[in-house]
Amino acid sequence: MPSFHHPCLCVLAGAGDPGAGPCGFGTYFLEGRGVDHWITEYWDTDDRRWVRVDTEHLGNGYVEHPEDLAPGEFLTGGEAWVRYRAGLVDGQNFGVPGTDHAWGPAEISGNAVRDLAALCNREMLPWDEWGRMTAAYEGKTGPDYDHLIDTLANTCAEDDAQALSRLLGHEDLAVPDHMLK
Fold first, then answer.
1. H helix runs in the chain, sequence order
2. CA-based angle 151:156:157, to the nearest 5?
3. In terms of CB atoms within 10 Å, which end of the chain has fewer, N or C?
4. DSSP-derived secondary structure letter, 24
5. How far from the centroid of its chain's Cα atoms is residue 163's Cα?
6. What span, in angstroms and rounded, lies between the C-alpha atoms of 150 and 102?
7. How far is it, in rounded angstroms, from Cα 162 to Cα 146?
8. Are the C-beta atoms of 152 and 78 separated by less than 8 Å?
9. What's the mean pLDDT when you consider all of the chain?
10. What is the top-level taxon of the source organism (predicted)?
């Protein structure tokens, strides 16, 4: 699976733009489903807002304006988690197409953790797992982990770099050094 957002982030960085590579779910691929996906965000200084771009699907017709995704067309892992926990979406409808096992709340929490890493400039691969992610995929986490992901989702929404960095230091969320080499 090619990663289209990584080269875009390099171009943005070279231009001095604080781009980001959110991990989450595209809601425009399969009706009623959130499909595992990564996009690119950049700061629009004129409009004073983050612009979400689906760099992988520019010109492919999946969505009307991939160069400026509308609210809800892409949900970060944290945004999807908040909606799931509020009962606004069915967690079983979020996952990786072509698989039977990679659907459900654990996929949402996994993408929330990957999104936290991305927000802290730790760009990971879509299949990387660390901390308690594997245990979550195996159904071996409980309410304490769910509450940690609640905190993660709320912190990611605040866009506070120091709070994000502190949270990424949590033993269940920290990216191991060997994965960063």
1. 5-14, 77-85, 105-119, 133-137, 143-158, 161-168
2. 100
3. C
4. E
5. 17
6. 21
7. 22
8. yes
9. 88
10. Bacteria
Provide the residue type at 3 as one letter.
Answer: S
pLDDT digits (tens, 9 = 90+) for 135-168: 999 999 999 999 999 999 999 999 788 999 999 9
On the 0-12 / 13-18 / 19+ scale of CB atoms within 10 A, 53 is buried
> Which residue intervals of 23-142 are DSSP H helices?
77-85, 105-119, 133-137
Please name the amino acid found at residue 35. Answer: V
* Residue 24 identity: G
Q: Is 34 exposed, middle or buried (0-12, 13-18, 19+ CB in 10 A)?
A: buried
Which tokens is 156 given?
A: 């990611």
For the record, the structure tokens of 64 come out as 């009307």
Q: Residue 44's pLDDT band (boundaries 50, 70, 90)?
A: confident
